[in-house]
Amino acid sequence: MQRMGMVIGLEAEKVSEYKHLHTDVWQGVLSKITECNIRNYSIFLKEPENLLFGYWEYHGTDFAADAALMAADPETQRWWDVCMPCQKPFEIRKDGEWWAMMEEVFHLD
Q1: Which residue range(s) make up the domain with 12?
Q2: 36 CB-near residues (< 8 Å, 6+ apart)
Q3: How far is CA 81 from the centre of its chain?
Q4: Which end of the chain is more exposed for a tag (fewer CB within 10 A), N or C?
């Protein structure tokens, strides 16, 4: 299992909309996340800075392949089309990233 963290900004005028969207995530999207070996997925919001922190545990053996499978899913693409206008990606993210992936520097079970 690999713990993964990521961060992105949230447009100030979209905070309420983003919170509302995540009170009822589409079942097909949730199923695809599980199918792609992601468990224990959480998104946290820090206001007033409007930073989103995402965390999940990856239980597969090929994250790139699972991420590609998720990205190819039509319902997930529609979900991203709704959520991405709310988000404000960092200029410093790596090529190919929307959310900026984070390095784990400490863990305690």
Answers
A1: 2-102
A2: 60, 66, 67, 69, 70
A3: 13
A4: C
pLDDT at residue 85 is higher than 90: yes
Residue 108 lies in a domain: no
Distance CA 2, CA 57 (A): 6
Q: Model pTM?
A: 0.91
Q: For residue 12, which phi and psi values (nearest 5 degrees)?
A: -55, -40
49 close to 83: Cβ distance less than 8 angstroms: no
Q: pLDDT at residue 92 above 90?
A: no
* Among the listed residues 92, 71, 88, 91, the one whose alpha carbon sits nearest the alpha carbon of residue 80: 71
Number of H helices, E strands in the chain: 4, 5
Per the CB < 8 A criterion, the answer to whether 74 and 28 are in contact is no
pLDDT digits (tens, 9 = 90+) for 25-61: 999 999 999 999 999 999 999 999 999 999 999 999 9
